[in-house]
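Annual report, structural modelling task.

Input specification for the magnesium ion complex:
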Amino acid sequence: MEPNVTVVILAAGLGTRMKSKQAKVLHQAGGLSLIEHVVNSASRIAPANRIFAVVGHQAERVRQTLDGRGIGFVEQIEQKGTGHALAMCREQVEAFGGLLVVLYGDCPLLSAETIAELVRIQSESNAAATVITTELEDPTGYGRIVRDADGNVCLIVEQKAATPEQLAIREINSGIYCFNSELLWKHIDAITPDNPAKEYYLTDIVELFRCAGHHVGIHRLADPGEVLGINTRVELAEVDAIFRQRKVRQLMLEGVTIRKPETVTIDAAVRVGIDTVIEPFAQILGATEIGEDCRIGASCVIQDSRIEAGVDILPFTCIGTSHIESGASIGPYARLRMQNHVAAGAHIGNFVELKKTRMGAGAKAGHLAYLGDSVIGENVNIGAGTITCNYDGIKKHATQIGAGAFVGSNSTLVAPVEIGAGSYIAAGSVITDPVPADSLALGRAREVVKPEWARKRREQKRDGC
Ligand code: UD1
Ligand code: MG
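The model returned the following structure:
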């Protein structure tokens, strides 16, 4: 962390070109909102009490997204331009002195290393500010860097105000600066909205510095990738792809096998142990943690879950906020909706849905079952088609099944109900009363067989009766 640096993140704009009801900085790439990426990088440069976000559109939601990080907020109710946005921070920021870095909330690829380099260049110079620039094939829309005969920056001109010669310049303003804060606050009030857009352009400060006898330095990046701001959903998808590539690459280098990595979606905070294999189109999201030697089958979606070592998750399985212990096998086509705990070696097969359910060690539900609000003991066998009726239309109720019980196929367990350890439920039963341990419960009509009935019926039909 650099000493004496304050960071201001400009994030008040709506982002008209996103064509969205949602503020641009709340859109997500790589599993985090754009502003969270920027705050993450800023947090490696300055302590939280010296990071400020200027918020405007959906200010409350932006604050909530960044809740708990300890950063400050400045509200810019009317968005009158980047110069106005920064000027709004004066009261909270000026007293810190030192260096002031300006970042944009819609520029999530900028790395902490690049910001640190910008700060280093500024701190070792006597410039009033240093700006990050880069050269673009197509600079349309960006402010252009106008240099004098000696190569020094003399002004930054916005697209709308540029002359045809200035429009031909391909070196652009990234909008990322490091200021000598004393000089910034001394001159910022001289910025006027005297331009076609009637906005207070922060870029005007360059000329103001020049007139006052100060110069502005440049940190020119050879690769423009980091400073590309997001303006449209097309750019959002491009940036998302970059974050995804970075994550799968990092995991592969750490010892995870990822088949067809270009199809896999893994959020930044996900952790995966070595020798785990992730198959195509898997999505591993949120704060998921996966142990060593697991298999995550094709097209699985796993959110905010903990998967211990050696777990086999077969294709097309969806798991949310659940904990799976080692050696369990789940799927294919299983759904573990929320707050489930599957103990070691348990098996959940195809078309089984679990909700708020604890499966004991070695328990099995091989096919076609719904187990909700249930506690299922060790080595229980749940037959195909078993349903816990956990909802009476008003409230949810619990089902408890003791260790070693055998629940026959197509059983309907009407909760609240308790099935004792080691008992048997006959196939096709509707169970409404408690079943004591080691007993057999039958809850169905007895089978009636009428010999010869079908043959006689056929004969009657043939004789025309
Ligand atoms: C700005 C720069 C331009 C640069 C480009 C790089 C100015 C005048 N122009 O243009 O030179 O090439 O960025 O991407 O600075 N914001 C506020 N309050 C406001 C206005 C903007 O917080 O009143 C925030 C926006 O939310 C955004 C950032 O500032 O995060 C940049 O604003 P934007 O309108 O995108 O500026 P550009 O026109 O892209
Ligand atoms: Mg922009």
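The longest strand covers residues 171-180.
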